[in-house]
Specification:
Blueprint (H helix, E strand, L loop, with lengths): L1 E5 L3 H12 L3 E5 L3 H8 L10 H10 L3 E4 L2 H7 L2 E4 L14 H13 L4 E5 L7 H12 L4 E5 L9 H6 L4 E4 L3 H11 L9 E4 L1 H32 L3 H9 L20 H14 L5 H24 L8 E5 L14 H11 L3 E5 L4 H8 L4 E2 L12 E4 L11 H7 L4 E4 L6 H6 L3 E3 L5
Parallel strand pairs: 1-2, 1-4, 2-3, 4-5, 5-6, 7-8, 9-10, 9-12, 10-11, 12-13, 13-14
The structure holds nicotinamide-adenine-dinucleotide.
Length: 433
Amino acid sequence: MNIAVIGTGYVGLVAGGCFAESGNDVWCVDIDAEKIEKLKKGIIPIYEPGLPEIVERNVREERLTFTTDFDAAVKKSLVIFVAVGTPPTPSGAADLTAVLNVARSIGRAMDRYKVIVVKSTVPVGTSEKIREVLKKETKQPFDLLSNPEFLKQGAAVEDFMKPDRVVVGADDVRAGEILRDLYAPFVRTGSPVLLVDVRTAEMLKYAANAFLAARISFMNELANLCEEVGANVDMIRKGLASDSRIGPAFLFPGVGFGGSCFPKDIRALIDTGRQHQYDMKILEAVDAVNQRQAARFGEKIRKHFKDGLRDKRFGVWGLSFKPRTNDMRYAPSIKIIESLLGEGASVAAYDPEAMDEAKKIFGNRIQLSSSNYGCIEGADALLIVTEWQAFRNPNFDRIKAVMRQHVIFDGRNIYDPVQLRQLGFAYYSVGRV
Ligand code: NAD
């Protein structure tokens, strides 16, 4: 099948690569000419395990093409996926500018029947807006489908290749069947393709993210209370996780969730509620607890350094919003580092993949170190902000040898409090005393 994927970001690039991997001819389109130039040279702009191999193979075998030529890609394709960003507006509503611009351009470029598939996360009712835009621009027939994406950054290729489920929102069953065929190679082991109406598909994506975010905020709230009452959130988590009605996923407390999805998607769902005069009370609390969580981490630091943070030096391990990605969009590390800098502290940081992104955000305001040990030389405290695998079993003697003071604030609970205290560290974590 001939496919165009509009938007070559975390979702579009993975989707394009994986559709090509299953034999389709795919044109990946982006307005960012620099990004397309890099991709043409084989430079992958994001860190995503397994993706470079897939892109390289499919470009070599001429199934995957990167282009800025929107019209040509649309004309060649039967199915056109829209995978551009839907960032938050100040009110929390999703910004649909890019999606509607793309719809306009597709409408203008269409020369025959097309199946247009919205993969971007968009609020309920967006497909109707897209349909109106398309109808203004073209007399050609089309079907408009919703196909929200559930991949996780850091495991995106694996998730796309073996999804738990594929959701297809189609008001016309025949068009839905085209997508069912396209996804058939990915669901051979029996994962369901849920064929639903478009509004339900749009809502389902927000429901999934809101539910996962709620689990994290719930655990953060429990962890905070554990600190107050002297209970251990690790054991609470294990106790909950072993209950088959609850399960183990998304129960880890920490410094709050970030990334380009959870924070914006819960706010967009709250906004949808507001537009229908319905208060999403649980989600408002999920958001508020999350905002408080990074601030609470800062309070622990301030409480330890009673004489203030001015001229203190902090080493930060982990900058990306979660491990196995270079993405720093809405990463808790940004809030934490900004608040330290704001109080006159100096910061050195290390991340296995997000150093280029960090440079764009902080410039020369923090020192970017080439190793995790280098970043804590002369530090008054080490902050664990992202739980990369490489931080889990460090050489604590080496840490002690290079730090000025032996203090660790572990925002991800990756070390054992008893062991760390035995080693002579002042050690703070989340929900464990
Ligand atoms: P991204 O910012 O990484 O990529 C978006 C791309 O679209 C950029 O490369 C941008 O240059 C391009 N673009 C913008 N306007 C364009 C236009 N008019 N024509 C062509 N290209 C254009 O975004 P992302 O993280 O891939 O997310 C895309 C959508 O998928 C969002 O709605 C997001 O909520 C959703 N989503 C993201 C994830 C994730 O893990 N990142 C997971 C599921 C769903």
